[in-house]
Amino acid sequence: MQMMTVGDSVQLAFETFGDSQQPLILLIAGAGAPAAFWVEAFCQDLAAHGYFVVCYSNRDTDLSTHFETPYPIETLPS
């Protein structure tokens, strides 16, 4: 699992499959879902069909940043 920083220093965990030079598919799960929501075999199958697949763990899931206090839903993507 890789990590990236977005917004106000929020760390998001993510996984990639396939060649980054291929067309991108960004798999977005529900707000409380980790990257593992997407079955690895499904991601590998998409990559085998010529796509670069990225799936990430939302805030407060998996290895992504967890917050102690509530935050506005508008800040979820950042």
Structure description:
This protein is α+β, with helices and mostly antiparallel strands. The protein has one domain (2-75): 3-Layer(aba) Sandwich (Rossmann fold). 12% of the residues lie in helices and 28% in strands. It has one helix and four strands, in the order βββαβ. A four-stranded mixed sheet has the order 1-2-4-3. Strand 1 (2-6) and strand 2 (10-17) form a beta hairpin. It is elongated and about 40 Å long. The mean pLDDT is 83.
Give a topology summary.
Blueprint: E1 2-6, E2 10-17, E3 24-27, H1 40-48, E4 52-56
Parallel strand pairs: 3-4
Antiparallel strand pairs: 1-2, 2-4
In short:
The chain is α+β, with helices and mostly antiparallel strands and 78 residues long. The chain has one helix at residues 40-48; strands spanning 2-6, 10-17, 24-27, 52-56.
